[in-house]
Amino acid sequence: MLEGAIGLVGGWKRARWLLTGLGLLILALILVGMIPYDLHPNDSHAYWSLDPADPYRDARLGGVDAFLYAPAVAQLLGPFTRLPFDTFRLLLGALSLGALAALGAAYALIVPGVIEDLVRGNIHVLLAVAILLGFRYPGTWAAMLLTKVTPGVALLWFAVRRDWRALGQVVVVTAAVVVVSMLLGGVRLWEEWIRLLATSAESPRTYTYLGFAPPPLLFRLPLAIAVVAWGAVTDRRWTVAVAAFLALPVIWPSGFALLAAVPPLVIADRARPADEDEARLAPTAA
Predict the structure, then answer these.
(1) What is the pLDDT of residues 201-213, one digit of tens each?
(2) Residue 158 and residue 150: Cα distance in Å, rounded?
(3) Closest CA to 128 of 47, 245, 232
(4) Which domain holds residue 84?
(5) Residues 252, 158: contact at Cβ < 8 Å?
(6) Taking Cα atoms as reference points, which of 265, 274, 266, 221 lies closest to residue 244?
(7) Using CA atoms in the order 32, 33, 36, 40, what is the torsion angle rounded to 10 degrees?
(8) For the chain, what is the domain count?
(9) Tens-digit pLDDT profile for residues 232-266
């Protein structure tokens, strides 16, 4: 059994290079126009065109160039909005792709929605990376709570497992970001952001694709809670990414990129027993 598990991990390590190459090839062909794909960098344009001093002017869910994230994110993006737009969007795409590569998960390019997310310039790929890092550095969940917000329900993983230290780290890091942001920009922007979230919740927007409209958030949240609770009890970390996806404010094609965290977590979970067996057998072999 041990040899089989090790062989599976070894085979996956070889296969992921092929998958990475395939994903990069598809991305390149789309970018040069050889694969027709109607994609526009409208999300990255919303980030680039914001006014850090007044980011929520005329903002509404689904609006053109609407910025819906926390003031801290607007303050972070502020200096980069002075760059030419093409430079800005390429840097954002490079950051997302580089983050996947740094974690050895560039093969996740083949996950539906990832390439679209890179081209449109949204942050689902970066949030998938935050989920992956969150098992070791829980504070990275602050990125989710200050942007998409509702996928933070996946933090129930730590609550069900009674990992209060991890939840404490999330709270401390998020609170620290909020405090620093308030010191830099005042309380007004945070009040405006909270009002914007409340307004969006009152008038949720549903995305329709090929005539199909995903269920609204109100119906998806209980499912997300059930998935992550089951995963926490049965030690399946990939359920955290699935729950976060189900809890997105709006599900649309680019949002599937959040599932880029699933393959690395599945592989890591399957490799874990082999590592534990090796650790247990090592003293005997010696």
Answers:
(1) 655 565 666 667 7
(2) 16
(3) 245
(4) 2-285
(5) no
(6) 221
(7) 80
(8) 1
(9) 999 999 999 999 999 999 888 889 999 999 999 98
Question: Would you state the torsion angle of the CA atoms of residues 163, 151, 242, 154, taken in this order, to the nearest 10 degrees?
Answer: 20
For residue 174, which amino acid is it? T
The secondary structure of residue 58, as a DSSP letter, is: T
SS3 135: coil
Q: Which two tokens stand for residue 219?
A: 């119906």
Distance (Å, whole) CA 156 – CA 141: 12
Q: Which two tokens stand for residue 262?
A: 């699933």
Tell whether the torsion through CA atoms of 237, 243, 249 and 250 is positive or negative: positive
Q: Is the dihedral of CA 119, 123, 128, 130 positive or negative?
A: positive
Rounded Cα–Cα distance for residues 262 and 128 (Å): 9
Tokens, residue 225: 């809670």
